[in-house]
Design brief:
Number of domains: 3
Structural class: alpha+beta
Strand order of the largest sheet: 3-6-7-8
Order of helices and strands: HHEEHEEEEEEEHHHHHHH
Distance between the termini: 110 Å
Shape: elongated
Largest sheet: 4 strands, antiparallel
Number of helices: 10
Helix content: 40-55%
Strand content: 15-25%
Radius of gyration: 38 Å
């Protein structure tokens, strides 16, 4: 019967959904399968034999038979699970963790043990990325927090006074993210020693803010008759903001300003001197 169903019904039959396939199957059963004569009893049709046998058959199960696809999966470096040519997002905390993918006709679920950690509408296209906004928001927040922590660690490593200054910022309830960003910008502009001295003076004055540190640095530059600090404004494009340029000594450009040596003069007899 499996072979009969495969060749008489499924072969070369187009359908666009399981519901459409079931509708075609119901019609095919009534018009083709049940209309056949019973083997060995040509006078009786299959539909008539089924009606005769049905009272003696076992009832169908009370609950639908689970026909979802189950597959053990694991993500790569990114928080996505590849299934059927598409990528489905998962929480970033589950990267590299073994998960179970459960795919039905309309839904793809990802389970961590018995807990559902992601639910997505299933797509039958190819090369699509199906994402949960909550997964993306959590990932962005984690990256921002990690970036802020790296920035504070850099300040503490470069400036001994930074630890006490950051603690004082936290006690006063200042937003650490924006204050750290401003202090890192000052570190790049003036260097570690100048910033550390300015942090120490700001702590002594009780002026605990990045703006106060910038004011101290500006006062010192004016006293030395140096030009004011200018903030470097970059576009939001990460290809520009994340670019790292290795500084080189400008002495290499001095050769461009050095005139070439004069050519030796020739004497009437053709010799040079």
């Amino acid at each position: 019967m499996i072979g009969f169903l495969r060749h008489a019904f499924f072969a070369a039959r187009p359908f666009h959904s399981v519901a459409d396939l079931n509708t075609q199957l119901t019609r095919w059963i009534a018009d083709v399968a049940h209309a056949r004569p019973v083997p060995g009893r040509r006078e009786q049709r299959v539909a008539e034999a089924l009606a005769e046998e049905q009272p003696r058959l076992l009832p169908l199960p009370e609950h639908p038979f689970p026909c979802e696809l189950l597959r053990a999966v694991r993500s790569g470096k990114t928080p996505y699970i590849r299934f059927d040519g598409n990528d489905y997002s998962i929480p970033h905390t589950l990267v590299h963790r073994p998960l179970t993918l459960v795919a039905s006709e309309h839904q793809v679920r990802l389970l961590d043990g018995s807990t559902a950690v992601a639910r997505h509408a299933r797509t039958y296209e190819r090369g699509q990325r199906i994402e949960d906004d909550a997964h993306l928001a959590a990932l962005v927040a984690e990256k921002r927090r990690a970036h802020e922590l790296r920035g504070r660690d850099r300040l503490r490593y470069a400036c001994p006074q930074a630890d006490a200054f950051i603690d004082a910022l936290a006690v006063r309830g200042h937003p650490l993210a924006s204050e750290t960003t401003r202090l890192l910008r000052l570190l790049d502009q003036v260097g570690a020693s100048a910033l550390d001295a300015a942090l120490a003076e700001a702590l002594t004055r009780g002026a605990i803010s990045a703006a106060s540190v910038a004011h101290v640095l500006e006062q010192r530059r004016r006293a030395r008759r140096q030009p004011p600090l200018l903030d470097l404004v970059l576009p939001a494009d990460p290809r520009v903001r994340d670019l790292r340029v290795t500084p080189h000594a400008p002495s290499a450009y001095d050769s461009l300003l050095t005139p070439p040596p004069a050519a030796p003069e020739e004497t009437p007899d053709g010799s040079a001197h």
